[in-house]
Amino acid sequence: MTISAASVQPAASHYVNGKYVDDPDGTPMQSLCSVTGMVIAELNAASASLIDECVVAARQAQESWAALTGTERGRILRKAADLIRERNRELSILETRDTGKPLQETLCADALSGADCLEYFGGIAATVGGETVQQGESFFYTRREPLGVCVGIGAWNYPFQIACWKAAPALACGNAMIFKPSEVTPLSALKLAEIFKEAGLPDGVFNVLQGAAATGSTLVKHPGVAKVSITGSVATGKKVATGAAETLKPVTLELGGKSPLIVFADADMDQAVAGAMLGNFYSSGQVCSNGTRVFVQRAVLEEFLQKLQPRCAAILLGNPLDEKTQMGPLVSAPQRDKVLAYIEIGKKEGARLVCGGDRAVVAGCEQGNFIQPTVFADVTDDMTIAREEIFGPVMSVLTFDTVEEVIERANNTEFGLAAGVFTSDLTTAHGVIAKLKAGTCWINTYNITPVEMPFGGMKHSGMGRENSQHAIEHYSQIKSVYVEMGKLESPY
After folding, report:
1. Tell me, what's the pLDDT at 489?
2. What's the pLDDT score for residue 3?
3. Average pLDDT over residues 235-251
4. Counting runs of H as helices and runs of E as strands, what totals does the chain give?
5. Which pLDDT belongs to residue 488?
6. What is the spatial distance between Cα 228 and Cα 474, in angstroms, rounded to a whole number?
7. Are 188 and 217 in contact (CB under 8 A)?
8. 3-state class of 431 per DSSP?
9. Partners of 263 in the beta sheet?
10. Domain boundaries, the chain
11. CATH number of 14-255+457-478: 3.40.630.30, 3.40.605.10, 3.30.43.10, 1.10.238.10?
12. What is the Cα–Cα distance from 169 to 352, expressed in whole angstroms?
């Protein structure tokens, strides 16, 4: 297949109350192909009046949706999951065109992981409830109730998956959702809205509004919105938390990271190299949980680099719609330029360039935002590339000697999203993991995130958890009810 300038223009920019709507008062925005730079869709951002209209529709729809049983809600979510699986290829091609991610990735990781999430929360929707506790003859019980209208704000690296990760627990609990995709990748969330409607979701329960920061800010501060969940940068997360605080909205923040991936001398070196590559080059390095600080014990440093270098050189860059392509372009020219700037900083600050380090020119995709898989060695903790999130295919290799040293250095960051440990000694593995300040951790693997496992970070990497039964806590609230069965005794 070839990337062309052919349009993938949606029927309209927004999906509100069960139908596509345009908003002539909204600011124009475009979706660009990451390979050709050409416009593939013209949209507009939601105006304040459309946002108000959407919130009203969602609030009205939420009451009847919440009145359904969990079994009824779950049946619709599971139907949506089935439809996504039936249309996986169509959805994957759209996601590849909008993000630049290789089709071999999107076919197995994006829409299908979204379907898994809808199936999982559809399955547990009927179990969402409270508890009853006896107090002598009397008792109290709790009710787990929906919050109301929830806003989900997505990132551009996993647009469809993130929309499902936020919608599934929210809808399972009886909430309505307004989802704002990233302005860089606005298309696939609209397809999710179509699928929800076909699956039987009532109009107004899931809506999509397009826009950039101004749209997000208006939604976050809107008095009709009860909760906000965002996946994005630390800077954006802080703005969302500040805006939500004005009306005391609860927030879930899944933010950035600069995660440590620790390789001990006794590790299976081939597996450690594979894990480091998975944790740095998948999706062209545009994954928040990536283990971009690779700490390698000094005794095996050269072995690690010798095994790593040829595997990096063999990564096939190409047209993302070619299923043989292993690594596509970065999502946009600004993101490409940002990553290239970090690479130059790494060179200037004295890191040793092991491989890559420049733009890549791909035949037939000469205008694409490609960057070579890049590895720096001799990186020290104070270097910029070891401290700041790059969000591109750039691996920093650092050397350590002792367990105590690497734990201290791994934790010496404002981030706390993820961490990985490679060792054949499980006592070491569990001991190190217990001391790492990170919310999502792996032993002898990396970036595996089944929907049954909570995902989220500590410190500046966010608060709250996506996925698993823990997500239910973020989309519901507890009401306590005490029932007196005896005679009420009062001193008055």
Report:
1. 82
2. 55
3. 97
4. 16, 20
5. 86
6. 10
7. no
8. helix
9. 296, 422
10. 14-255+457-478, 260-443
11. 3.40.605.10
12. 45
Contacts 24+ apart (CB under 8 A), 127-131: 127/70, 128/70, 128/172, 128/173, 128/472, 128/476, 129/70, 130/478, 130/479
Amino acid identity of residue 74, one-letter, is G
Q: Answer yes or no: is pLDDT of 89 > 60.
A: yes
Tell me the C-alpha distance between 238 and 215, whole Å: 16
Q: List the beta bridge partners of residue 376.
A: 353, 396
Query: Could you tell me whether strands 260-263 and 418-422 are parallel, antiparallel, or unpaired per DSSP bridges?
Result: parallel
φ/ψ (deg, to 5) at 419: -165, 155
Indicate whether 5 pLDDT > 70: no
> Which residues are identified as catalytic?
166, 254, 288, 466
Q: Which amino acid is at 372?
A: Q
pLDDT tens per residue across span 199-239: 999 999 999 999 999 999 999 999 999 999 999 999 999 99
Q: Which fold has domain 260-443?
A: Aldehyde Dehydrogenase; Chain A, domain 2 (3.40.309)
Token match 């951790």: residue? 441
What is the value of pTM for the model shown?
0.95
β-pairing, 132-135 vs 138-146, is antiparallel
Name the token pair of 13: 């920019």
477 is written with which tokens?
């609230």
Asked if pLDDT for residue 1 goes beyond 90, the answer is no
